[in-house]
Every structure is written in structure tokens, then in C-alpha cells.
Design a protein that fits this description.
four-stranded antiparallel beta sheet; two-stranded antiparallel ribbon; 15% strand
């Protein structure tokens, strides 16, 4: 019973880390990455549609993205959606494809991005600790209702703490890597 509680908690912690990874890939770090456009939606015949469902997004150079819409009539809408997004990108179109040159980040923008990364990291740490607390509360309840022994409950809580430490360490690693990526010139 305790094993299932801990396994469920670990699965939820893994999902929190995956969410953090996705958040980090959508942050611009001076390099072109198709996932930067994941949150950009285009009004396509009245339906908000992600760019990657309307076009082929390629990265021919480290600091350039090319967007080739399957329906050429959607080109202006895609361009407008990218301009309106908070990514700070300037798309240029030749009527066939949209090219986006990713500008170098200013030191000020780098600092802002590091703050955003730090906040997302801390939010993930808090989420992981909340998952641990929920699991431990569940284990304590089982112990109180005499469904598990005191030793089993203590062992279950220790295992939960080890898992928490492991996931927090992984979150810290992701933060360090993303911070270095943002700060490299």
C-alpha cells in the first residue's frame, strides 16, 4: 500500500519536471528552437491553431527559423501572431516562407530570463514538496488507522524523502543548465 502511494507521488514529481522542461524549451536563449513557437496560436478560419499545425518549422542555422505554411493564405496571420506574441521576434516574409532571425540577447534581457527561470524552478520545487507532503500525510493516516505498522510508515516516509531529494536535485540541474545557456554570450 505504501509502495503504491510512493510510486504515485514519484509519477507526479516526474510530470512536474517534464512540465518544467517544456517551460524551459519555450524560453528564448539566443538560439533558434522550433518549440519557441509552441505557445503561439494563429487565428485560422476562426479557430486558434498552433503554428506547428499550420506550417513546417525548420532551423536551418543556429539563430534562424524558417516557417513554411502549408496554406499560403495563412502566411500573414502567422506573421501577425508571432509579432503579437511576447517572444520579441521580428518575422520577415517573402510571400512563400517566413524567416525569423533570433537576435542576440541583451544583458538586461538575459537577467530577466534568469529571473523567470528561477521562478519556474522554485515553483517546481514547491510542487514536488507538496507532492511529498501529500504522500506523507496519506502514509500517516494509514498508520493512524493501523493499516500499516509504525516501522513501515517510517520506511515509507524515508523512501519518499529520498525520492524528493532526487527530483529536487534534477530540478536544480535543469536550472543550472538553462541559466548557463541563457548567460553564454
Amino acid at each position: 500500500m505504501i509502495r503504491e502511494i510512493n510510486q504515485d507521488a514519484e509519477d507526479r514529481m516526474r510530470k512536474a519536471i517534464e512540465t518544467l522542461r517544456k517551460e524551459f524549451t519555450s524560453l528564448r536563449a539566443g538560439r533558434a528552437n522550433p518549440s519557441m513557437l509552441d505557445k503561439v496560436t494563429v487565428d485560422y478560419y476562426g479557430v486558434p491553431t498552433p503554428v506547428n499545425q499550420l506550417a513546417n518549422v525548420a532551423v536551418p542555422e543556429p539563430r534562424m527559423m524558417m516557417i513554411q505554411p502549408w496554406d499560403k493564405s495563412s502566411l500573414p496571420s502567422i506573421e501577425k501572431a508571432i509579432l503579437k506574441s511576447d517572444l520579441g521576434l521580428n518575422p520577415s516574409s517573402d510571400g512563400q516562407v517566413i524567416r525569423i532571425v533570433i537576435p542576440q540577447l541583451t544583458q538586461e534581457r538575459r537577467s530577466e530570463l534568469v529571473k523567470v527561470v528561477k521562478k519556474k524552478t522554485e515553483d517546481t520545487r514547491v510542487a514536488i514538496r507538496n507532492i511529498r507532503r501529500d504522500a506523507n500525510d496519506h502514509i500517516k493516516l494509514l498508520e493512524k488507522e493501523h493499516e500499516v505498522s509504525e516501522d513501515d510508515a517510517k520506511r515509507g516516509q524515508e523512501d519518499m524523502q529520498k525520492a524528493t531529494d532526487k527530483f529536487i536535485k534534477e530540478v536544480d540541474h535543469l536550472y543550472t543548465v538553462k541559466e548557463q545557456e541563457i548567460m553564454e554570450v
